[in-house]
Specification:
The complex is a heterodimer.
Chain A lengths: L1 E4 L4 H6 L5 E10 L2 H12 L12 E3 L27 H6 L4 E4 L5 H10 L2 E4 L5 H5 L2 E8 L8 E15 L8
Chain B lengths: L1 E4 H17 L3 H13 L3 H20 L9 E9 L2 E4 L3 H15 L24 E7 L4 E8 L1 H4 L3 E5 L4 H16 L7 E9 L1 H11 L11 H15 L14 E11 L4 E8 L6 E4 L1
Parallel strand pairs in B: 1-3, 2-4, 7-8
Antiparallel strand pairs in B: 2-5, 5-10, 6-9, 7-9
Helix pairs in contact in B: 1-4, 2-3, 6-8
The structure holds iron/sulfur cluster.
Amino acid sequence: MIKLQLPLKKEEIARLRAGDEVLLTGPVYTGRDAAHKRLTEAMARGEELPVDLRGQVIYYVGPAPAKPGQPIGPAGPTTSYRMDPYTPALLDAGMVGMIGKGRRTEPVREAIVRNGAVYFITIGGAAALIADSIRSKEPVCYEDLGTEAVCRLEVEDFYAIVGIDSLGNSLL
Amino acid sequence: MRELHVNEVRAAVARMVIDANCCIGEGMLTCLEQCRDREEKTLSRNVLDMIVRNDRLAEERMVAMCQDTGMAVFRVQVGQEIHFVGGSLDQAIHDGTAQGYEEGYLRKSVVGEPLFDRVNTRNNTPAVIYYEFVPGDQLHITFAPKGFGSENMSVVKMLKPADGVDGVLNFVVEAVKNAGPNPCPPIVVGVGIGGTFEKAAQLSKFALMRDVGSHNEDPRYAALEDELMERINALAIGPAGLGGKTTALGVHVEWFPTHIAGLPVAVNLCCHAYRHSSVTL
Ligand code: SF4
């Protein structure tokens, strides 16, 4: 098990290999279908983004509501391929990693290699357990999207497996 | 005629919505544990262990086992001797769904219109409801929240009668293979054979309301289930798609008479968060 501090350094990413199990600690940003659409549309119009994703990791998740006193509700990964049409643009703009579940398409794999980035997978459907490694959740933008809003999470020892490494090796 | 107040239906629906999303039940837990103990690869075994721990934790804390608490699907069998009072039965089911998703801290995942606006309805309604009329004076409701990681990997195909058993086997196995790691394996596979285009799809959905690993009462279809189970597990997609012995936890086949020219087949996949609840009023 490799312990990693977020934001990730490029040298650390370069050392990771597909199949490595990691524990992530630090900030990650949530984002799924609707937020990806808005972010990439804003980029295409040349607008400044409401969130700076350079050097950051995005987690494909739409959490369930938190019970009183809890930082977040159950929060497992959603299927990554739906974000594939938007991902290369975000990686080219400086995002360094994604956490999700399932396979990616070839353009995403190529963008990972081109940018020295990494794709982590975590366990779909283990949402209640995963929520225990999330310490806080702060809204960042697109709050009108409800569960699909972009939030900043602080995670601690968040379990993930390297799905695609920076050389393009793929586990799935 | 028996009178049944729709408020009773609404309250029961609200309870069953929460129950299904938080409590997977001992049957599923035992099934997952047996599969975990059979896995030889450490990573695959660990994934199944995480799933078991997750599902127990969810039940203990009464939180959703998966953040995708699905679109609400109901099969409602209405005894024809019931007279509903106090309002609309249909509305009571939608209202009970909204109430349960709110009170249970469940995620609201429904958009009010699919193509242009896609604005979240914020109460997880409308539900998808299938009604049937049956003899008697009882109301039987089965609820299954359907997550879309697995729903998105489902397929319907109109086979030719000449495609026969092999055609069906190959089509189902191919569907699971194409889905790969996306539907959160290990999965339960619902197969509907016969009827019309949409009837086959509905049968495959109802197949996913059966207890995991149960068999069709027709021995020929039960044998088909066993053969599919074997061929699907031989794909070795494994827990979370990381390889291993457990790709499917169950394969359930349902059938219906069909037209002389057709052999419709539908494959509806469900993830390991194989959730339901039912009630008789
Ligand atoms: S496919 Fe099932 S287990 Fe996976 S995220 Fe969706 S609802 Fe959860």
